[in-house]
Amino acid sequence: MSTESAPSSDRTYDAEQDLQHRLSLATPEHTTRGFLFTSTLRVVRDLGESEAVVRRCMAASGEKSFAEFFNYPTRSLLLLLAAAAQALSGRFGGFGEALRQIGFKAGESYMETPVGRTAMQQAGGPPQQIMGTLQTLYWVLTSYGKPEVTWTGPKSGVLAIQRTLMPLAYHEGAAVSMATKLGMRGVKVRARKTGELSIELEFCW
Q1: Which secondary structure element, helix H or strand E, spans residue 98, and what is its range?
Q2: CB 166 within 8 A of CB 141
Q3: How far apart are CA 196 and CA 154, in angstroms?
Q4: If 0-12 CB within 10 Å is exposed, 13-18 middle and 19+ buried, where does residue 190 land?
Q5: Between 104 and which of 18, 58, 153, 173 could a Cys-Cys bridge form, CB atoms 3.0 to 4.6 Å apart?
Q6: pLDDT at 144
Q7: Angle at 55 between CA 54 and CA 58, to 5 degrees
Q8: Each residue of 143-186: pLDDT tens digit?
Q9: What is the pTM of this model?
């Protein structure tokens, strides 16, 4: 499962440190839909890890079960992601690449929801139109302002997200997955931090 994503920023990027920093910023008001938890557990299981590893990841979250469209503490998801990326880091050659692969799977899972399926049914047209659809899909996932799209060239654009606790590497994998499902070919995504909780996703195709 390849994400085709570019490096998160540069060689100094430390995905594990990024995740731990975001974990320190998580408060009870930050919540996340259950399907992101279930997709993380699914990728651990699908990649052949034992049920003992799946249970260990589940235990790390502090939750007992997940309903796909219920909200759970984002802190719990970050704890789950940390355990899962650690378990998969040997397979993918590092913590950061494991996060990208988990993010890619989360993007696939999102596109299998009613919201994602509707977006795929309406997909088509030029990449600029697909970027508009991605903007809407991210808006559904957030509760703190609509993401903004800026065009940087005929084959490139930026999606600015005002507030997110997900690590950069995770976003890269998820964005490539969703864009590909919507029909964007040869897409590459690079995430970069622009503020304490704000990021930009740079797309090129």
Answers
A1: helix 95-111
A2: no
A3: 30
A4: buried
A5: 173
A6: 63
A7: 90
A8: 666 799 999 999 999 999 998 999 999 999 999 999 999 999 99
A9: 0.89
In this structure, what token pair is assigned to residue 151?
A: 């065009």
H-helix or E-strand containing 32? strand 31-33
- Distance between CA 176 and CA 33 in Å, rounded? 20
Strand partners, 155: none
Q: Identity (one letter) of the amino acid at 108?
A: E
Contacts of the segment 122-127: beta carbons below 8 A, 24+ positions apart:
123/181, 123/182, 123/183, 124/183, 127/155, 127/157, 127/184, 127/187, 127/203, 127/205
Angle (nearest 5°) at CA 27 between 26 and 29: 120
